[in-house]
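testing teh design pipeline on a random one, pls ignore if ur not involved
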């Protein structure tokens, strides 16, 4: 069996709710995750998972998000730094992940992007909520997070699927989950500032993620899970009932490959 199993949860905004289904399947099959690397929504779901090593916290959070509550998370403001201030999201998450990294049951590494240095940055100490708020700060949509001399935004800008972070932290078997947007033919898009910004982000991340995935295809120490999420919304966080089963289904389908990698019989 592998010495250290790493779980990589990629970016994808609301589509990342499917990560929770993957967690459920891993838990049901007693897959011993020792390390989690998360980017953007992957950082949030990863933080919830690392509290106890169970999908329970993430499921409880999603259960609170009906259509109305999900829409209330977006506190739109005059866009000097971002269209959404982020205060409502911080308040919503405070009860769940306002704790120190040292209190987590499973080791977590959060990926963000430092605009000043033009590089990715990893956060594995300090306050978990602060780290997650930086990692989910989609440029233009959310205000960036200022931390000392850094201006931090979404980890998915430079590393939407941080497999390399798990490898650098000693993981010799890696389960990576890709929930990013996939282009499906021509789309009619109203050319508003918001739509242009979001579509540009989606296309950039899609290309970047596909490049990373191509590099993984020949590696025997990595199992890639890509749930079939179709045209699931990027910003509707009330999709739990639809997306969690899709993540769970994809993980169960990959389970023979995961168990073979881990030499579990």
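output:
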């Amino acid at each position: 069996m592998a010495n250290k199993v790493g779980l990589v949860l990629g970016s994808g905004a609301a589509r990342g709710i499917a990560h929770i289904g993957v967690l459920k399947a891993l838990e049901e099959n007693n897959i011993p995750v020792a390390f989690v690397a998360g980017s953007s929504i992957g950082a949030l779901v990863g933080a919830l998972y690392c509290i106890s090593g169970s999908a329970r916290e993430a499921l409880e959070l999603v259960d609170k998000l009906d259509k109305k509550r999900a829409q209330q998370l977006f506190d739109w403001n005059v866009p000097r730094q971002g269209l959404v201030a982020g205060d409502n999201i911080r308040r919503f998450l405070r009860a769940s992940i306002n704790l120190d990294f040292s209190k987590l049951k499973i080791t977590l590494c959060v990926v963000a992007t430092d605009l000043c240095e033009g590089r990715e940055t990893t956060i594995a100490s300090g306050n978990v909520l602060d780290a997650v708020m930086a990692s989910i700060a989609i440029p233009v949509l959310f205000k960036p997070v200022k931390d000392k001399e850094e201006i931090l935004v979404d980890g998915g800008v430079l590393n939407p699927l941080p497999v390399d972070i798990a490898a650098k932290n000693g993981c010799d078997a890696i389960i990576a989950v890709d929930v990013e947007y996939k282009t499906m033919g021509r789309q009619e898009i109203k050319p508003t500032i918001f739509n242009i910004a979001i579509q540009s982000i989606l296309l950039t991340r899609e290309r970047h993620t596909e490049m990373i995935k191509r590099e993984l295809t020949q590696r025997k120490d990595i199992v890639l899970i890509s749930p079939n999420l179709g045209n699931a919304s990027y910003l509707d966080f009330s999709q739990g009932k639809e997306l969690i089963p899709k993540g769970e289904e994809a993980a169960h389908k990959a389970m023979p490959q995961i168990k073979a990698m881990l030499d579990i019989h």
